[in-house]
């Protein structure tokens, strides 16, 4: 007690001192000259001013009051407002700013200011507006913030502020706007925030706040918008929560750990327009009173444990009075209801309805056709039976229709083909029969078509191949017959075509060589005959080719040797004969690719007899055909690449923010190292020290003179592209530093030798650990590594003024240090993306399987593409399945496998090592459910639907904490330091 009193007294004394110092500074005669020197001090602390705002304009030769961004008061002629928003400035705030004693508004939003807020800011007691949003400030919010009692708007959103929020914030009783979102604040939300009885907007989202939401917040009657989305808040909502919020329009509580029921009193906040309670642990009934919210437009209750009244069962009777409702998101709740015919009475504004995975039974009602504004409808992963009603053809605004994973029967109504705006049609995994409607070519906006796993018969209508903008088509596992149309060659942007497991017959048309964007082609398990067309050499982007289980005869055309991206080939179970080609991708194929054919011959490795000398005749003919089919497409590729190179050059000028600014950047000063020193360090690059080989060269372990271990990445300069890769990697690594990125120690760059000296990572890479036969990672270790990777990505995407896209995330690029901390490596093909928007680039050598669809199809590089790769990586880390594993070629993909596991059992698909090593199945299942849900969110087909990396990190941290607390009491994972290394040398893959 005595201690507390002393403590209080000291604090009190300190604040008096602070106050006094305010008064004394004010007492000093401050005038416009002091203001001028304060602003010149600020100018001196700006290290980069891309638009030369301050350098040209802020000079002593003109009056301060005429400087850009400065406003002076008319009476006293002092600076009252400073606005430097959106100027790309890099710098810090000097203490001199505290002398601008008449300042009322201080706005430096959206620049790159860093450092912490100087204490002298506390002198600005006239401040009403302080906006530091969208900068890179760090440190804590000091308690002196409570002295700025005139503040009405405090905006610190999107910085790196950390620590606890000081309770003194409760002194700012004039505040109307408080934006603290997207920082690293932690600890409890101080209950003093409840004192802010003028607050209109309270935004605390995307931080690490713990504990409960202070009850007093629900008593701030002026509140219009309240967000704590993406924290770790727990506890329940007060049963009277809506009673004192007459002005509340928006409440965002999603992505927390809130539990209990949703109080029926929420509807007393009658002005509510947007309600997001998604991704929590709310249970019990969805309150029917939500239907009283007359103004409601958005209701998001996804990913909870909510149900509806068992007598009622009809979901939409709840919402028939919400006349303005336009987004209704209830997916992943065990609703167990039916869709009543009255669905047609829902708001005519309804645009989005998502009922994925809600255990919905019964039929799809006919009146669904009345929802005429609908653009998105998912009823996937439910238990719906009966036919697809023809009235669906009336939903003329529909862009995405997902009815996959139900028990729908009957034909695909041709009325679906009236949906001229439809971009995605997912009807896979049902019992649909009959034919694919001939009029499908009316779906001129269609990009994704999935009808796999149904009972469709008859031919594939050739009209399908008129939809030349299709990106992915999956018709696998049906009973489709007939031969392939010649028109298939029109599909210039198609990236994935899966027609496997049908009854297709006849020859593969030569025109197939026109599919120049195709990455993945499976025609496996059909009755195709004749030879493999030479024109396959035109499928220049192909990575996966599966022709297994047909009646194909003749030779494997040598033209396939030019397919430089081909990673997987399967021509097993056919009637092929003759020599297996030896060049290009064939160097890497194994016997499994060629099993069970008539008379193939070739190298011993492929388990086929050696070839006898063949005559030259047929080879010559083949040469002519190669010229005819392959060269034109190669020409096109070269043209595309050079166009892109030129546009990159032009673009480079815009990017000069990074490259021409070497002096002002906080560059890590790399020491240069000589070739001679590297020779010594690696014992002359001896094979003993070879760690592995990567796409652009070899990696050696080395010991520097001072004894430190390093990894030395030596570029193979004979490979085309290696120079560029080196430059890109240097350029990128020079600007970045983060605990989860591999650190560069030095570079060695001569005309004929280039090497990067990197931090040595003694525990190898994630790939080795995942696929080791002797070691395995437990849940917590996997979560930790993936959190490390997300942190690295967050830094790349958001930590610097120009976002950096890694472009090649995969397990072999995740390195592990002594403490099993993950470090992202290999920036050989990373991209700087100016303005944060996506940018069309040439197709580089990103790894198939991890590549986002829009990257594969259109070469669009964006941070969202990395998020997609991250999602795949997340799935792989917990399932131990490679995204291009053999098992996925025919009908499945890793993503699909995970999607389906949601309705079956998630434990079915996970790494069996996890099942055998973890004891608490319930905890593991909960954790996996959340993790795989997150992975699917990362892998949304459309980039704009993907979650951003900041939220990925927040959610994964949350999942980890929950898991850790669930298994608390049990062993918390092994001490990683005692774990050996899973065959670091034997895998022969480069960890760098
Ligand atoms: C401001 O005050 C300083 C002395 O404190 C004086 O030298 C200067 O002339 C004053 N400037 C103006 C513009 O009044
Ligand atoms: C300060 O900002 C507020 C809100 O943007 C604005 O209304 C006011 O006019 C500004 N005052 C000055 C002195 O610029």
UniProtKB/TrEMBL annotation:
It catalyses: L-threonyl-[protein] + ATP = O-phospho-L-threonyl-[protein] + ADP + H(+); L-seryl-[protein] + ATP = O-phospho-L-seryl-[protein] + ADP + H(+). One of its GO terms (cellular component) is plasma membrane. Residues 685-966 form the Protein kinase domain. Residues 1-27 form the signal peptide. Its EC number is 2.7.11.1. ATP binds at residue 713. Keywords: ATP-binding, Cell membrane, Glycoprotein, Kinase, Leucine-rich repeat, Membrane, Nucleotide-binding, Phosphoprotein, Receptor, Repeat, Serine/threonine-protein kinase, Signal, Transferase, Transmembrane, Transmembrane helix. It is found in: Cell membrane. One of its GO terms (molecular function) is protein serine/threonine kinase activity. It is a single-pass membrane protein. It comes from the Eukaryota. It holds the Pfam family LRRNT_2. PROSITE patterns: PROTEIN_KINASE_ATP (PS00107), PROTEIN_KINASE_DOM (PS50011), PROTEIN_KINASE_ST (PS00108). Belongs to the protein kinase superfamily. Ser/Thr protein kinase family. This is non-specific serine/threonine protein kinase.
